[in-house]
Each structure stands twice: as structure tokens, then as C-alpha cells.
Amino acid sequence: MTAGIEFRQVTKRYGDAKSPLVVKGIDLVVPKGTLTTILGPSGCGKTTSLRMIAGLDVASSGQIFIDGQDVTALGAAERNVSMVFQSYALFPHMSVIGNVGYGLSVSGLGRDETRRRARAAMELVGLSGYDDRSPSELSGGQQQRVAVARALVLEPSVMLFDEPLSNLDARLRRSMREEIRALQQRLKLTVAYVTHDQAEALAVSDQIVVMNAGLIAQAGSPRELYEHPNSEFVAGFMGEALLFAGIAQADGTVRLGPLQVPTRQPMRPGSVKVAVRPEAWTVVQSGTGGLEGRLSKTAYLGGFQELTVDTEIGEIFVVSPDVGRAWAPGLALGLRLEGRGVSVVAAV
Asked: What is the value of pTM for the model shown?
């Protein structure tokens, strides 16, 4: 696929040549017309990478391409890129239509054409009829829509989102991420999207890039990263996988305590580390052949039950859909693994 955004060995440091690198020579491709989420913990370099795409930060070395054009040396105003900030950055003294049309008006476009295009962008995000409202009269979700419309109206080659939903409550976050994704797909926008929220990344992305300490730890589809993490870091960051010591066997299975689980990739026999996600465990009756354990903690979360179980291989965190059962600390139970949600992430 054609690259909408491409990094070639891009680095970034703030300060002189002795300052540490924040981004350490990464290669990255965002295919044109797709949404790539850059995910990682605080300080991993994800926002710096986004700012380098926008031209707000200058790469220390390497090259950045947008739609095949080398934009490394171009300033922010010379790149056909729009950015939606975490804070929305709306002008409080301007109306909604004034905010949306601001970029067009400062570029010299006529008043009538500016208003026509601003209204078209507002219609795309469900803000028709809000022309004369001020930002202070809008909800958080509506302010977010204004910020998106202001970015869309410039008809950019690339749209960038920096933690766009972090100021919204959980329900509104879910609906807004669905709207952003639907808009991206409908308009075939090239989008780079930064977040620290794994669920958000899984929900909106064609591709997820997980960063750690200025490097790309793994890139791939949401399913690939969740089901086939290539390292302990990615397994732990994409969800709540716990790591256990296991033994890879010649028959292609891994022994985890008394359990044998199939693996998706061939490996040499020997000691390995196995990542197991909470939903991979099935709770069974004690004494029926599973991994024996005793319930130490439980939490009811409405649609599912969180269980902490003490076993011979260590403490295990389990998510069970069985919310009707009376779970009580001290309960003896068994645990089984069916294979899904289990990944071998390292040989020891």
C-alpha cells in the first residue's frame, strides 16, 4: 500500500548532542487511508513522534515523508497536516463557526467560501446549526467535534490526534472513538493517533505501533499485537497478561504446571516464559483435572467477575463471565486453558 506517512531512521533529542535521544532511530509506515495508533507508556516518545509528523518538532536525524514527499525540512505551515490536541485548543472568544473556519480565514480565503466550507465540516461531525454557539456553551464531546471539524476543514493529507479522548468520561469516550473511526473510514483519511489507552487503540486502529523507551517494540494489527505479542513488554502492555515460567516440549505444547497448552509457533524444547491473559482461563470445579487453586480475592464489575486465585504456579488474575455464582474467598476451584490468550514471549 502507498505510504501516507513514513519515518526512515528518525531520531529526536532535545538539547545538545550530549542529550539523550527521546526517539532512537525508528522506521514507521502509516499506509495511506488508514488509522495507525501509536501506543505506549508516558515518556516512550509517542507524542514526540506525532509532533515530528506535524512539523512542530524537528527531527534530529532521519527522514519523514508524507504522501511520498520528503517533508523533513519543512515547517508545520508547509505540511498538509492538521492536528487535534488533547486540550482541543478552541478560541473562547470565537463562535463555533469562527473556530472551525479560522484556518481558512487566516489563509486568505473569502468570508462566504470560508463559511460554506466550515458548515460542511460541521455537518460531517454532527454540529449543523451550532454556528453561533460559543465553546463555553458546549459539552466536552461537542467541543471535541469542533476541534475535529476545524482540522477537517483544511482538507489535510494527514490528520493527527494527540490523546483526543482523555478529557471525556467513559461513555462519551466510547461514542467519540466510534465517531472518529467512522469518519476516518468514510473519508479515507490517513490518521496517526496517539493514546496510552489500550482499549481505545484496539477499537479504532488498522495498525498499532507500541513504543517503549524511544523504540518501536512491535507494530501490527490489533489482533496480532493482542494475540501474538513478541515480548514481555508488549504482552504486559496490551492488556493484563501475567507471565509464568513454562517448559516447551518436543510435541509442540508448553507445560505450565500440570497443564499442557498448544502453541501457535514452533520452538525448541526448553524453558520459556508464557504470557496468559485473564480471559484465557476457564473456571472449573475443583478436582476435575485443571490447575488447582483457592480464591483469595473477588470483585463484581457488573458484566464480569474479577478473581484472584492462589495456585502452585503463582497468583493468577482471572476474568469470568459467571456473575451469578456466589464467589467467596477461600473457595477451592480449578482452572483450565483452551489455548486462546496464551503466548510464548521468550525463551529462557
From this structure: 0.88
On whether the CB atoms of residues 310 and 294 are closer than 8 A, the answer is: yes
Tell me, rounded to whole angstroms, the distance of Cα 63 from its chain centroid. 24
pLDDT tens digits, one per residue of 136-192: 999 888 898 899 999 998 889 999 999 888 877 878 888 888 888 998 998 899 999
Fold category of 3-232 in CATH: Rossmann fold (3.40.50)
**pLDDT in the model for residue 251:** 85
**Could you say which residues of the chain have pLDDT below 70?**
1, 339, 348
Q: Are 61 and 229 in contact (CB under 8 A)?
A: no
R_g (Cα) of the chain, nearest Å: 24
Query: Which residues contact residue 255 at a Cβ distance below 8 angstroms, ignoring those fewer than 6 apart?
Result: 246, 247, 249
Q: Where are the alpha helices (DSSP H) in the chain?
A: 46-54, 96-106, 111-124, 140-152, 170-187, 198-204, 222-227, 232-237
Q: How far apart are CA 23 and CA 15, in angstroms?
A: 13
Domain definitions of the chain by residue range:
3-232, 240-347
The pLDDT of residue 85 is 85
Q: What are phi and psi of 69, to 5 degrees?
A: -95, 135
Strands (E), the chain: 3-13, 21-31, 35-39, 61-66, 69-70, 81-84, 158-162, 190-195, 207-212, 215-220, 242-248, 253-256, 259-262, 270-276, 281-285, 291-300, 305-311, 314-320, 332-337, 342-347
* Pick among 1.10.287.110, 2.40.50.140, 2.40.128.110, 2.160.10.10: CATH of 240-347: 2.40.50.140
What is the distance between the alpha carbons of residues 114 and 328, in angstroms, rounded to a whole number? 64
270-276, strands of its sheet edge to edge: 259-262, 253-256, 242-248, 270-276, 342-347
Cell readout for 199 is 482499549
Q: What is the distance between the alpha carbons of residues 58 and 53, in angstroms, rounded to a whole number? A: 9
Q: Determine phi and psi for 313, rounding to 5 degrees.
A: -100, 5
Nearest to 62 by CA among 24, 112, 29, 98: 24
